[in-house]
Write a structure and sequence with these properties.
- By secondary structure, the chain is mainly beta.
- It folds into 4 domains: 104 residues, no CATH class; 107 residues, Nuclear Transport Factor 2, Chain: A (Roll), CATH 3.10.450.40; 133 residues, Nuclear Transport Factor 2, Chain: A (Roll); 381 residues, Beta-galactosidase, Chain A, domain 5 (Distorted Sandwich).
- The chain contains 10 helices and 43 strands.
- A hairpin with a 2-residue loop joins strand 1 and strand 2.
- The longest helix is centred in the N-terminal third of the chain and has 38 residues.
- It is globular.
- The two termini are 55 Å apart.
- This is Amine oxidase.
- GO terms for molecular function: metal ion binding; oxidoreductase activity, acting on the CH-NH2 group of donors, oxygen as acceptor.
């Protein structure tokens, strides 16, 4: 029990003396006596502490009896190195241990003498266990992908098992797990049925008479004779709705060589003597490629290569020479280039037309400074600026967390358990990471929590980049690889997920998900005052998936907290997409530092304004499937308005100080609907089970708390809005259907005038009371690039929280050890302690690193 040396307690800056009520003389005497005894006691404790501290210090300094058996390694008082006693070898320590210093009363660093520390290795408990066969929701294995590919070949869908070599040959683009039907999966989880595993395979069928894009269901896997089932009608997804094609970028480059040769003089004179073949590439990924299914119009930008002979997805150095390739036919001889623009001057129907105007001097010309190309590497590679001094003490390793007694989570295959949580990690090459069957303390909360898509919409003042729109699921989201020690701590457990490589026609396993427990470095709860002090330290489990989509990098994360919260996050970094800054552009106005589409961020570029909207599927099952969406309105009004929400009241009670108050009002959402955040009419969004009550009679549920700084400001008159309808809502609630798997179609971005798989199609006025419902959550942010985004964008974050809402009878963390101190009667508890140790972490070196 903590010893209190006086009877004075603090509360919000005021002091209160605990007394009885004697007469004035006795009160004065008692007060004097109390103060005297308190001060005397304090002095005694101080003297005892000082003497004890000196003795303990001397004892510790000399090691105490048998010290050589207890202390294996100590820190040198004068050097940042480890020395040993009794010949103990500490050379395997992979991190530098620095001398400890304290701050003197004068505010300067002072040596602490001869500090020592234990060098014992932290116990290692490998939390990952292999399993003999994949679980119901596990991502596809490489064996299952190869089995699926073999089945497609056997059925004649794929003409050869070799990698595709022709533009007019069917090939597999993506493979992912086909999630089981929900009722079938629930019966299987309850051990009341069986369920097979199936693959969902995207195939570009460019080798058939009427080319199209097709999706197949292949399985059941792991048994003899997997079936191949076509999921779309023939021609439903026209061949021109495909994503940027395997061969297409190279073919566009080859196709434009002739035109670039025609413009050789313009390119050399304008772009620092550049040669198209040696110094440049064609960026042809500006989506959409067509507004109808039959159209394939590829807007392109001439661009400098990143550095050396490689492209670093340098969408920053796009140059003011643009055009389009009309590639609606798979026969390249039918293609043609048109709509050439140079410094926003055009359109010129052909390259010859542009060159004619260039050579006769009827258009403005550009001449980049000599040597500009040589600055590319310095401008686009994020590295320390050696012209600046290193920040003080930046060369000393920073703070980090570790596992003093090994990992506290367990991973069996892709089934993960930690502190009462249990769930299955899954993943789709197209859609990204997902979680299934999330349970807390044995009760199901979420059936499916899945990343679905991200929309990015750009604005710029030039031909190729105005109204650029990406939906990243079209290109496949689960692409990337962990940088250990940067994306995740070195002690993380790294899990691999298989994806299909369309270039080699083989599956590859990539380390793309890491799992680790994090110290929140704060309290989960705390209180100190009067006769009580205590709290609980905040820690949580993190699943992180870093992915790279062209120039942008996303970190997709799920955080599980001790109090039953699930926090889903999406972070964005990477290179901005910019467009050329032309000082003589008449649209820039007088002030050349900014204009309607962004700020000037370098000598010749403007950061294009854009947004990021992340879409998630959240299938909450609060204890069972039949749930209800309930809004809680946060209101302000008259006292009568408040009281009349629940009772027939006609007069304001006299005890109210004002005739205005805040109050809440409940509303049940009866029909499918899309919801938007309105800060002037604030609401709580909750999913509750009205059939299950807690101890106090409240419907058990969870609250949805968006963390968003962006909202869609286009209305339905904007043509792409139908295909991107998920961006209109922060949360849409629909009745769950197995066929309504995702909030977008991967083909709609290239057929925006006739979309067939968007969220608005799911919102059709069906009843959602006491039903199995899905919440389609969309969160995001607006990005106006500034000079701080150069050369690389620092992380920007969005997400949402699922938080218990009357789900428990009381705080769910009371089954955890915590800090507790009380007086009269005494209560005492401490969180688990540990011995200091070091992690024997092997730091991974990159190729070519010394």
């Amino acid at each position: 029990m903590e010893l209190h040396t006086n009877s004075t307690f603090a509360d919000r800056g005021n002091s209160y003396q605990v007394t009885r009520k004697p007469d004035d003389n006795m009160r004065s005497y008692g007060k004097f006596r109390s103060i005297f005894l308190s001060q005397l006691c304090s002095i005694c404790i101080f003297i005892l502490g000082l003497v004890g501290g000196i003795l303990i210090g001397i004892f510790a300094y000399h090691g105490g009896p048998n010290s050589s058996r207890d202390i294996k390694c100590i820190i040198s008082p004068n050097k940042d190195q480890v020395v040993t006693r009794e010949g103990t070898n500490c050379s395997h320590i992979s991190t530098t241990i620095s001398t400890i210093s304290t701050v003197s009363s004068a505010g300067e660093n002072a040596s602490s003498g001869n500090p020592s520390t234990s060098c014992n290795t932290c116990p290692v408990k490998n939390p990952v266990n292999s399993v003999s066969s994949p679980g119901l929701f596990d991502p596809l294995s490489t064996d299952e992908m190869e089995e699926s590919f073999a089945a497609l070949f056997k059925s004649g869908v794929i003409p050869t098992k070799d990698p595709p070599v022709s533009f007019n040959q069917n090939y597999v683009q993506y493979m992912s797990l086909q999630a089981p039907k929900k009722q079938e999966a629930l019966r299987f989880l309850q051990k009341q049925g069986t369920s097979g595993r199936f693959a969902k395979v995207h195939v570009v069928r460019s080798g058939i008479n009427n080319p199209d894009c097709m999706i197949y269901k292949v399985g059941p896997l792991g048994r003899d004779g997997a079936n191949v089932t076509q999921l779309l009608a023939d021609g439903e997804a026209h061949i021109n709705t495909r994503p940027k094609d395997l061969f297409e970028a190279l073919m566009v480059f080859d196709f434009l060589k002739k035109d670039m040769k025609t413009m050789e003089q313009l390119i050399s004179e304008s772009f620092d003597g550049a040669s198209f073949m040696d110094d440049m590439y064609i960026f042809s990924g500006n989506s959409p490629f067509g507004l109808t299914s039959e159209e394939r119009k590829i807007r392109f930008n001439l661009a400098f290569k990143g550095f050396g002979n490689s492209e670093i997805m340098d969408l920053f150095d796009l140059l003011p020479l643009q055009g389009a390739v009309i590639a609606s036919s798979l026969n390249v001889s039918d293609w043609f280039a048109t709509d050439y623009y140079y410094l926003n001057q055009g359109p010129f129907k052909t390259a010859k037309d542009l060159m004619s105007s260039y050579t006769n001097g009827t258009i403005r010309k550009l001449q980049l400074p000599k040597g500009y190309m040589k600055t590319i590497r310095d401008r686009i590679v994020p590295k320390r600026d050696t012209s600046l001094p290193v920040r003080e003490k930046a060369d000393i390793p920073g703070t980090r967390t570790y596992e003093p007694m090994g990992a506290r989570y367990t991973i069996n295959g892709y089934n993960i358990s930690w502190m009462g949580w249990n769930f299955v990690l899954s993943g789709s090459q197209v859609r990204g990471p997902s979680l299934f069957n999330i349970r807390f303390k044995g009760e199901r909360i979420v059936y499916e929590l899945a990343f679905n898509d991200v929309s990015v919409m750009y604005a710029a003042d030039n031909y190729a980049q105005n109204n650029v729109i990406y939906t990243d699921a079209t290109y496949g989201i689960l692409e990337g690889e962990i940088i250990l020690g940067l994306d995740c701590p070195e002690h993380s457990s790294v899990l691999k997920i298989a994806t299909w490589n369309s270039r080699t026609a083989t599956p590859i396993e990539t380390p793309i998900v890491c799992v680790f427990e994090v110290d929140g470095e704060e309290s989960l709860w705390r209180h100190k005052g009067g006769a009580f002090s205590g709290g609980q330290r905040e820690r949580h489990l993190v699943l992180r998936t870093p992915v790279t989509l062209g120039n942008y990098d996303y970190s997709l994360e799920f955080h599980f907290h001790l109090d039953g919260r699930i926090v889903t996050k999406a972070r964005a970094s990477g290179y901005i997409q910019a467009h050329f800054w032309d000082v003589r552009n008449k649209h820039f106005g007088e002030d050349k530092s900014f204009y309607p589409f962004g700020y000037k961020v370098s000598d010749f570029h403007v950061g294009s304004i854009h947004d990021h909207t992340f879409g998630f599927k959240v299938d909450l099952d609060i204890l069972e499937q039949n749930n209800t969406f309930r809004l809680i309105h946060w209101k302000a009004g008259s006292v009568l308005d408040a009281l009349q929400t629940k009772a027939n009241v006609t007069e304001i009670p006299s005890y109210y100080l004002f005739n205005q108050t805040r109050y809440i009002e409940w509303e049940t959402l009866y029909k499918e609907a899309g919801l938007r955040i309105d800060m002037e009419k604030q609401k709580f969004w909750t999913v509750v089970n009205t059939n299950k009550k807690n101890k106090w009679g409240n419907s058990r549920g969870y609250r949805i708390i968006p963390m968003t700084t962006g909202a869609q400001n286009f209305d339905d008159s904007f043509l792409p809005m139908k295909a991107l309808s998920f961006t209109k809502y922060h949360c849409a609630v629909t009745k769950r259907k197995d066929e309504e798997e995702f909030l977008t179609s991967t083909f709609d971005v290239n057929r925006m005038m006739e979309p067939k798989g968007h969220l608005d199609l799911m919102i059709n006025n069906e009843s959602i009371v006491n039903e199995d419902i899905v919440n389609w959550i969309s969160v995001g942010f607006l990005h106006v690039p500034t000079s701080e985004d150069m050369p690389i964008t620092l992380n920007v974050e969005t997400g949402f929280t699922l938080k218990p809402h009357n789900f428990f009878d009381r705080s769910p963390v009371l089954d955890l050890p915590q800090e507790t101190n009380t007086i009269e009667p005494s209560e005492y508890e401490r969180m688990p302690t540990f011995d200091q140790c070091y992690e024997n972490i092997q730091i991974t070196k990159h190729p070519g690193e010394p």
